[in-house]
Amino acid sequence: MTVEAARRQGVENFSVFSNHVLIEPPLRAIVNGGETKVDGFIGPGHVATTVGTDAFEFLPREFNLPVAVAGFEPLDVLQSVVLLVEQFVDGSVESGNARVDNQYARVVRSAGNTTAQKLMDRVFSLRDTFEWRGLGWIEGSGLGISEEYAAFDAERRFEVPGRRIPDPITCECGSVLTGHIKPWQCAVFGTACTPATPIGTCMVSPEGACAAYYNFGRIDRQVTLNLAKTRRSAASAKR
Question: Which helix (H) or strand (E) holds 122?
Answer without folding.
Answer: helix 114-123
